[in-house]
Amino acid sequence: MALGKLFHGAVSDSLQAFLQRQNVSFESWWQKVRWNEISDRPENVIEPCRQVWEFMQTVCSARLAEASSRQPHASELDLMASAVPFLVEHKISGELLGLSGMLSVDCYDYLHAIMFDLKATNRPEEWHRLYSVGYALVFESVHEVPVDICCTVYLNVDNERVNVHKDLFFANDELRQWWIEERDKKLEIVAEKKDPGKPERSQCSEYCTFYSTCYG
Fold it and tell me: Which stretches of 57-101 are assigned E, i.e. beta strand?
C-alpha cells in the first residue's frame, strides 16, 4: 500500500515536472512526501521510488529526443504535445454518474484517446480493468468525447529493476455494464446502510491491508 501510493506520486509528479520543463530532483520531491499518510518507514521505500522517478525521466527524455529527431522544425511545445501527450492526475467530477465530485484520473493520452490506470503490483486481476473503464465513462460524461481504449499499467521494482507490464484492452459494452452493476451494488449498500459482510476467503488477496483483520 505504501509503495502503491508513493509510485503514483512519483510517476505523476515526475511526468508533470517534465511536461512543465521544471528541473525537479528526486531528493526535493522526496522531502515533500507526507509521511503521516504513508504506512511504512522512508528507508524501506526510498530506493524503489528513486528508481521509478529516474525511469520516468529517462523514458520521457528519450521520447522527446525521438520526436525532435523526426520533427526538426517543430517548436518545443509541439514536440512535448506529440512526445508526452498526457493529462496527468486530471481532476474531474464523477457526479453525473453518481460518484465523487473529486476524482483524479491517473493518466489520459489525448493524442490516442487512451485512458490509463496505474497498479503498483505484478499480479493482474480481471477486475482491475474496471478502474480505467470507470475513468473513461466519467471522462465521456464530462467532456463528451468517446474513450474506447483503456490500459492498466502494472508497475513494480524487482531486483533493482523497474518492471512495466501493460494490459491494453477495448472498453466494450460488457465491461461498461460490469462497471455499472458494481457501482449500483455499492450505491445500494450506502443508501440502505447494508452490511456487505465479508467476501469468501478465496476472493481476497493476502496483500489486502485488512486481510489479517478478517482472517487473522
Answer: 86-92
